[in-house]
Amino acid sequence: MNKRGIIILCIIATLLCIGLGANFYFMYYLNAEEGQLASVRALENMIRHKIRHLKPAYLNRNPRFFMFRNKLLKNYKQAAYENASVLWEIANWWPHENEIYPLYDSSMGQLLKTLREEPITRASNLARGTQLKLLLRLSQQQKVIFKPQWYPRDIVIEGVVYSGKDRHVAEVYAFYLGAVLDLRWTPIVVGRVVNLKDEIYAHGDQELQNTIKIEVDDEGKETYCLYGKCHYCNEEESICGDEQHNIEGVIIYIVPGTLAKRRSPWQRTYKEDKRAVWEDDMTYCKALKNKMETIRLLDLIDVAIFDYLIQNGDRHHYETREERVVLIDNGKSFGNPHKDHLDILAPLYQCCLIRKSTWDRLQVFSGGVLTEIVDRLSKQDALYPLITDKHKRGVERRLLVVFAVVEYCMDKEGDKMFKTL
Ligand SMILES: Nc1ncnc2c1ncn2[C@@H]1O[C@H](COP(=O)(O)OP(=O)(O)OP(=O)(O)O)[C@@H](O)[C@H]1O
Ligand SMILES: [Mn+2]
């Protein structure tokens, strides 16, 4: 080989080495990312496989359901009452840790009726949180929170899981779902049609009145529109009364006691170009298990199941009462009936733990009866039907996913995944 030949060979060898080096470097990064992506994908495939092979018991009605049905229907049936004050006093004594109301109590049906019927005697803006809400006083006594309607029932909210404004009916649905699943950690909520002119404006303080615009058309007909005071409130986005000045909304009973707010370990970044660590790291729970009390972790897993069923993907913070998690703020549920954001279930499939009582209870409501019983319970609500059939099918579809994920975890962990704390 001549000198020129040797030089060419050397150049080729050098280029080859640089090329290979860069390639290895590139491959390394590709693998790190692909590995994570692959593990999320593998999990999804596993769950899909499990759904296709679910045991008939998960798909059929559970005969144990009938035992619960009649008791639930009786307990939550709105009932006549004589003295609202007495009922509110009772209800304000109910909460114990995160249980907001008792399993069965003859005052519940009456309490629900007070929230629907007692006169509004005062109204003001409640600038807590980011969404529009009011603080109302009923019969000069009991304070309650009011969240108004923004959307019709059949709206499909496109985009990310936390898109859009509150869905008022979601708060009522969450109350009944909590009651059925024995996660009695939500506030007591009823739907109510209120008169923006006679009930809200007329009893509103100056500040609230300043956030209600009154428009008069050529024929002298008034329209009342509320925009309120909150982080996202502005004059351009308001809620207007109908011909009679009525608006729909929900009355949320204030949970007595002190609440503490904590950052969720499964918090989203709320930036579409940035993913949170937990979204890609399927071993995320390992470290958490050492850092967090098991009882708290189990609470958060119950919350994840609850939120997944109703597709509440906005629990950036959770609140605790006497160190136990409460289910406050369920307004961002039921955005898109066609979408199931599996990652809301991350606490369950990453930790592979579940409270035994929750697991037993979920199985009672298999075979389509979960949405059926919530529907029956909410028939008495002023805003019935709370959700569309598409949303109901969504809830049932997601219940099967929860069953499949628990099956997946049982394969991995066996019976030790069930806890009794
Ligand atoms: N039923 C209730 N009982 C007691 N406190 C409540 C109740 N509902 C809401 N709060 C308090 O008011 C705060 C704001 O309420 P909520 O979270 O429903 O508002 P939001 O506008 O949806 O907030 P965010 O924008 O943070 O989601 C809660 O963090 C809680 O501390
Ligand atoms: Mn909210």
Automatic annotation (TrEMBL):
Its cofactor is Mn(2+). One of its GO terms (molecular function) is metal ion binding. The active site is at D314. It holds the Pfam family Fam20C. The chain crosses the membrane at residues 7-30. ATP binds at Q131, K147, I252, Y253, I254, V255, E319, D329. Mn(2+) binds at D166, D329. Keywords: ATP-binding, Disulfide bond, Glycoprotein, Golgi apparatus, Manganese, Membrane, Metal-binding, Nucleotide-binding, Transmembrane, Transmembrane helix. Residues 221-416 form the FAM20 C-terminal domain. It is found in: Golgi apparatus. Its main location: Golgi. GO terms for cellular component: Golgi apparatus. Belongs to the FAM20 family. PANTHER family: DENTIN MATRIX PROTEIN 4 PROTEIN FAM20, GLYCOSAMINOGLYCAN XYLOSYLKINASE. This is FAM20 C-terminal domain-containing protein. The gene is Dvir\GJ24170.
